[in-house]
Amino acid sequence: MSVIDGQGRRYVVAALEYVTRYAVAVAVVDHTADSVAEFLMKNVVLRFGTFRELLTDGAPELTGRAIEQLIVLLQARQTNPVPYRPQMIGLVERYHRTWKDCVATFMQSEEQNDWSMWVDFATYAYNSGQHSTVALSPNELVMGRRLRPPNELLRSTAVTEAGELSAYHKKLVAAMEA
Question: Which ranges carry the Integrase catalytic domain (predicted)?
Answer without folding.
Answer: 1-146
